[in-house]
Amino acid sequence: MSGPPRRILLIQLRRLGDVILTAGLLNDLREAYAQSEIDFLTGAASEPLLRQHPLVSEVIEYDKRRPVRMIREIRSHHYDWVIDVQSSPRTAMLTRASGATVRAGWDIGFWSWVYTHKLPRSGGKTVYVLRERQRFLELLNVPIGVPATHLEITGTERLRAEELLAAAGVPPAALRVGMVLSVTEAVRRWPVENFAELAGLLAQEGVVPVILQNPGDQALAARLRSLCPSAMIVETAELRTLLAVIAACNVLVSGDTGPAHMATALGVPRVTIYGPTNPIAWNPGLPTTIILRDPAASNMRTRDWAAAGEHAGITGVSAESVLTSVRTLLQRTNAAQP
Q: What class is the 156-336 domain?
């Protein structure tokens, strides 16, 4: 490597949480190379996350239907560095085709020949995923700082979120606890009945439970409303709307899923409920990020947990314990305000 890179490309095509965590590398790259063009290649589903990111020069949306066109587009940027955090055969091919002098990725067997700099998938003990990914920067002699994520919301988007909350019946000055009911895997699911119990307990304390109804959540939201009529439901069909409503909440409660990472990147305290997934890997360990884990899951792998049948969801975390954690975060937030 000779001289600072003029153009850098980060690659993470899928999974919202992974895209947010990979985007955390932008902080260190920008600190080291303030004048460099730093682009981000991602999929259509996650592109809205980065649309307003102040540290990204250009967000390139990957189109899997036109692979030749994607190769031409990537080559046209004449990147000096490509950091392929996803490191799949598809992204390895794009990395090789980029023509970049420096090509960093994970050691993925056959396709590893593509990379000039590669890392083993595990660096030893389990650490926060963003810290693990900072190993790429260390490999490239880029100084690293404290792992941190960031997403940006516009003023217009914030106003729209307030309009949606008001339309749902949420008072403008009320304390709001957002709840995300759905997860990508059954093993990460906290039962909707538990969410409903938590919503009722919050309402009794004068805190508004706000249910973020993402696409596919209609049945879950209807079930919760039937159990807790005081819960307020806000439709968050679009990803930018989801981000803005999360940003308007005082605390977010969810399973181990993408919106939990969104909350951290937006500066919103969160209580995250874990099953067999390792919270050390997926939680930054901040005072504003409280971990609650089903005790029965601590020594089980995800596939073993799923095979347990009746224990497919997270049943060992009570609504009362989540309420206690929410209270703690609300108190910390109030204490931090001038």
A: alpha beta
